[in-house]
Structures are given as C-alpha cells and as structure tokens.
C-alpha cells in the first residue's frame, strides 16, 4: 500500500502459517471450515 504521498507503507510484519492455492472457487461454507478448523493440511499437489 502507499500513503497519500505515494510512499510505500503498511508492510506485513508477521508470519503466514497457512497458504493454499485452490484450483476452483471455494464456497463460504468451505472457507469458514478452513478458517475455523485451526489446523493446516499437508501438501496435496502430488509433486
């Protein structure tokens, strides 16, 4: 993000502990289940 002067600011200062790439749009119910599940998943990419 940039402030009103065009200077970059608001950098992320943390860790990402769950990252997924889906091959389709997920439903709100699926998204809520992932968010509220509290546990990660193993890589299922097959590679």
From TrEMBL:
InterPro entries cross-referenced by the UniProt entry: ConA-like_dom_sf
SUPFAM superfamilies in the record: Concanavalin A-like lectins/glucanases (SSF49899)
Name of this protein: LamG-like jellyroll fold domain-containing protein
Species of origin: marine sediment metagenome
